[in-house]
Amino acid sequence: MLNYPKFRFSQAEITDYLILLMTAAEVVHPDFRIASIEADPSDDRVLECALAGRAEVIVSGDGHLLSLGEFEKIPILRAQAFLDR
User: What predicted TM-score, i.e. pTM, was given to this entire model?
Assistant: First the structure.
């Protein structure tokens, strides 16, 4: 997704970001499945990872996720709303 044209990141910027992300991220492997978003079931993977990783917030620009508002008491916010908090 980082190579989407709307982001305008160079391959070097993407590589640098992924290296930084991997040093700070906690990789989770959910052992359960959620079926909450009928319109786009692939978005359910985000919810699964948020639960497995005990996320405090989900930051997304995805309309299906944002339409939930929150999931299992985890707020779902646009990036600017998250930064404004």
Answer: 0.80
